[in-house]
Amino acid sequence: MAPAAQRLEAEGLIRRFGGRAVVDDVSLAIGAGEVLCLLGPSGCGKTTTLRMLAGVESPDSGRIRVDGREVFSPQRSVPPEGRSVGLMFQDFALFPHLSVAENVAFGLTGARADRRARVVELLDRVDLSRHIDAYPHELSGGEQQRVALARALAPKPLVMLMDEPFSGLDNRLRDGIRDETLTLLKEEGTAVVMVTHEPEEAMRMADTIALMRNGRIVQQGAPYNLYNSPVDKAAAAFFSDINVIRGRVDGGLTRTAFGEFLAPGHSDGNFVDIVIRPQHLKLDFHRDGQAPLPTSQNGVPALGHVRRARFLGRDSLIEFEMAFDGSTLQAVVPSVFLPKPGLPLWLMMRRDRCHVFPAVSAKA
Ligand code: ATP
């Protein structure tokens, strides 16, 4: 039996502007009820990719299928309204002269009673039944957002395309609305592609993250995998601050103040960067100069002095001056600990959290 078609498939999408490929060979596959986040810095091609999926931008090459039906190929292009995709953008623009119910009913066809039933059902699901006859200006930003979601979902699109849909909301509202939106989209079984430049948002929402850079997907996978197994230094740096310790390979090993690191695949004489996130450094007190014993998991402790410590609410960010070379490393620890400047502490690198990359200066 042939495998069931994905809800949305894109193959080899390319879009050039002025001779430059701003989307360069992007392929995606998303199943029913799955959320894929296109994540990356400004200008990397996220919105252009989304616009091609929506049908408002024409690829120079590639193919797009919705539920197995070709909606774009070199021979054919189905217009946006024929693709069974819903759209939700940052400036979601409700119609100001229409009531909430009329806004939600806008794209619906069929018998009046059926349309009304769908509107009532969706407004109940987004908890706005009591505002059914209100006008957009009478609603808060979060409520307007929920109306926009209900409007986009009303015609039961197979695919929902969202471009930074939560960025206009204030922080306190955002988390709740993200979670409600996700629940509703999953219940409806809609396949979702969401554009964001915020890694936290992508990790919160996505089943799969496609990390983009210069028009290409550089890494694609579950949030856990992108965070814990970054494909390069820039991919690591996109998700949090990183510490970088430069080393030189000698006999397949890199020697650092934190002991020796295996550098498989790196030739002798080459420089490598050992990358570790601040929250994966472990700290221990300096007991009369006695260092904790090295372990296979934590490696060799290295001495640092607190340069400054900042209270960030849940965590503290501690900046160290390292005794061995005066370099700076950062650690993030629970905020119950806020050491004074000058305090000596031992730092340990959790071996399983270190990544060794060729030493190149790259930005995500
Ligand atoms: P942002 O997060 O800032 O929205 P993005 O990743 O969504 O960025 P795109 O909007 O897809 O990036 O733009 C990718 C590149 O393509 C940018 O350099 C942009 O200037 C360029 N670009 C987009 N649309 C056009 C256009 N119509 N004509 C020329 N260049 C364009």
Task: Give a verbal description of the structure.
There is one protein chain. The protein has 364 residues and is α+β, with helices and mostly antiparallel strands. The chain has two domains: 8-237, 3-Layer(aba) Sandwich (Rossmann fold), CATH 3.40.50.300; 240-358, Nucleic acid-binding proteins (OB fold (Dihydrolipoamide Acetyltransferase, E2P), Beta Barrel), CATH 2.40.50.140. Helix content is 22%, strand content 35%. The protein is built from eight helices and 21 strands. The chain has a six-stranded mixed β-sheet with strand order 7-8-9-3-10-11, with helices on both faces. α3 (112-125) crosses α4 and α4 (141-153) packs parallel to α5 (171-188). The radius of gyration is 25 Å and the shape is elongated. The mean pLDDT is 90. The site of adenosine-5'-triphosphate has 11 residues, from α1.
Indicate the CATH topology of the largest domain.
Rossmann fold
Determine and state the CATH class of the largest domain. Alpha Beta
Q: Cofactors and ligands present?
A: adenosine-5'-triphosphate
Bin the helical content: 10-25%
Question: How many DSSP-defined strands?
Answer: 21
Structural class by sheet pairing and helices = alpha+beta
Question: What's the alpha carbon Rg, rounded to whole Å?
Answer: 25 Å
Question: Largest sheet, if any?
Answer: 6 strands, mixed
**N/C terminus separation:** 42 Å
Instruction: Describe the strand arrangement of the main beta sheet, using strand numbers.
Output: 7-8-9-3-10-11
Classify the beta-strand content into a percent band: 35-45%
* Number of helical stretches of at least 4 residues: 8
The CATH homologous superfamily of the largest domain is termed P-loop containing nucleotide triphosphate hydrolases
